[in-house]
Amino acid sequence: FVGQRLVRVVCPMCKEPRPCDTDLREEFQITGEVPQIFYGKGCKSCKGTGFKGRTAIYEFLLVTDEVKELILKRSSSQEIAKLAIAQGMRSMRQDGWLKVTRGITTPEEVIRVT
Fold it and tell me: What are the C-alpha distances in Å from 62 to residues 7, 59, 82, 114?
């Protein structure tokens, strides 16, 4: 199964780094060193919005035998997600955070769509 959401992309013409605040550290469960986070300040290219374009964040659920068993037992979505993550699945929020650390989007965009 594949899940997808669109997030706005930080404008490459006006993006600038800002420090990560404590609330974001808690929201994304960040431990250790915090990467730079980029925001668009607004320019002519992005018409003052700070964003230009969109990109997708994804979540892929590989239906293994163990996941299939949970589905057939009508287990909760939280149990299925917990097992899938233990088996290596990256959640939409985790994929979003990866794009934040690469300067593609903002944490607020990821929070908004997830």
Answer: 23, 10, 13, 20
